[in-house]
Amino acid sequence: xxxxxxxARLASMHHAELAWxxxxxxxxxxxxxxxxxxxxxxxxxxxxRVLAHTPELADVRRALDGGRWPDAxxxxxxxxxxxxxxxxxxxxxxxxxxxxVVHEFPSSAHDAVERADRVxxxxxxxxxxxxxxxxxxxGLLDWHVDPVLGRRAPVSFWKTVPFLDSxxxxxxxxxxxxxxxxxxxxxxxxxxxxxxxxxxxxxDELASWLSANPPLMGINxxxxxxxxxxxxxxxWAINVFAIPQAPDEPPWSxxxxxxxxxxxxxxxxxxxxxxSPNTHLLGEALALYVTARALPIxxxxxxxxxxxxxILREEMGRQIASDGGxxxxxxxxxxxxxxxxxxxxxxxxxxxxxxxxxxxxxxxxRLASAARLLANDRGRLPHVGDEDGGDTLPVAGRxxxxxxxxxxxxxxxxxxxxxxxxxxxxxxxxxxxxxRFTRVLxxxxxxxxxxxSRPSAALAETGYYVSxSxxxxxxxxxxxxxxYQNGGHAHADALSLTFTLGHLPFLIDPxxxxxxxxxxxxxxxxxxxxxxxxxxxxxSQSTPSGPFxxxxxxxxxxxxxxxxxxxxxxxxxxxxxxxxEHRRHVLCRHGxxxxxxxxxxxxxxxxxxxxxxxxxxxxxxxxxxxxxxVSEGSAVSFFAPCGQMALFxxxxxxxxxxxxxxxxxxxxxxxxxxxxxxxxxxxxxSVFGLDPANEIHAVDITTESVGSAIARGIGLLIARxxxxxxxxxxxxxxxxxxxxxxxxxxxxG
Length: 749
What we know:
This protein is of the alpha+beta class. The protein folds into four domains: 4-37; 39-277, Chondroitin AC/alginate lyase (Glycosyltransferase, Alpha/alpha barrel), CATH 1.50.10.100; 320-454, no CATH class; 461-695, Beta-galactosidase, Chain A, domain 5, CATH 2.70.98.70.
């Protein structure tokens, strides 16, 4: 009996989707039957069948047909070494790239050796986990195990592997190893030092992986995005580890290219058009396009290139908003998308695909502009939405929230130096190693102009409103739609904000923690209480349904936004607590005050909690009717004219006082909760004093400003060291009247 929900889903499908799913189901049924009869195996002779019939590969095909693996291997390596550069790195650019990297980053070789030697020792730094070991009882690498939870995924036909079930372990941990992005770490060390041990390690791991992952068997064939990212790592590997003279070694180039073609064929047949048509589909398309352009040696390369190019172009209109924001509304996945199009643009330029380059350049320019706005002036993104710790081509070990190298690459590729936050980091040099880029990169480095100060602005369609100051303060308010399609990477964070004070994060989004390995942790870290916004009666604004779906979601809208040289003022609301309304007023007076006034309008008696999650670099210096936070010579005072204040640090009972700096790691932090109960309407006001030289002594709500307008406006009386002032906020107007000061501001919208 087919459940009614599935019948309804089938009835609503477009005929194209239904046909696609039927073909996939039939193909998978045949594949499953075949693997149950005979275990799949790799056959080196198959490479001859999938290679393009070009004169340059004639020697390779003859050697393969004759079973002369060493000859075929040597011919393949010569082909790679002698070919013009078609990828971001290639044997022909090694000498020049190494010279530039060592000159610009004198400690790069030492750092590369430290990182690569950990891999040689069998220790892997993946996501938020340090020193992971994947050894089986026989001492070999186990490519199907999650050593964090001590669980192993079954090696069965790929479609039958329940990778979302925590009984298989955390699929993210397993897949992160199997992306083979640590081969970039080995390659970096090999080029910078010439030590052959790093090359031998890659060759040994390839043989181990092929033995443990026969075609279409196991968890490492279950996600097309993972195959796509692994394919990019393999294209990197054959370009970095190919050397003209390599006697007495296994014919690894044959094995790599054979398995690469098989994985690309699997991706092509199972593209995420209807399963995860988001960054998954983009990453898969990127793999098809880049591998085909960089290694046009397969019979099917031209078709895969065309498919990848078409999807990348089509998805620009679906996944990139008019303001440049990515529609999943996750800062981390925005960076992923930017990096995807950066790589596509670089390869299009290198391989003279001018028509595609025009489109990819447009995508990079828009995504990079939005990323520059979302990032603080040191290139760090707020942890808005999911953050899974992943990367596209991680060469030098940048942090997941560090977008500086992406912005530097974008600045050079689209000719917009104002996108840079600093001089190009090392990762940028590896991405732009082709001679046509290096000349521009060298000129940019020689100019070394200071980063351009960015004004406050908004990504209105995506729904982010950003306040910036000349002293490095940076606030991001989430006042837009919940997420893209099923909101798989969204959080229940409507009207939440993050705030960096003078380049030092202060109010933070606690992060993600986990996807499927710990459902309670997953739901807690994307709940409203784990964000800097308001919870009503202990409820979240949006209700999750599984790790990547929601049964109910809240959407926010901006009511008023005004930016200026001295202050920024935002008013927004969301519909997550209907019939009650949550409306938030945010006034940021640069370098001086941050005022957040939350209004709950409606009927009945309710309890409201406003949570403020503090970066762990800050400590509480005082908590007595108000709070004072200090860190690295900075101090912030906190006052609330009404409500009960409580502080939590690593609290198991409430789940407050935690943060996840990177996927898979959860650590204690501070959470300040402000609680107020009563009949609606209710105002909860949070006042942060940002100027230690003019500290706040007291904050009160003024009665004369409220009256019958309580549902839309509020006035505050703020007593400070050398000034008392009244602040009025009423929807579209904000005014400040300073009683004792030489400065005075009075504004109305």
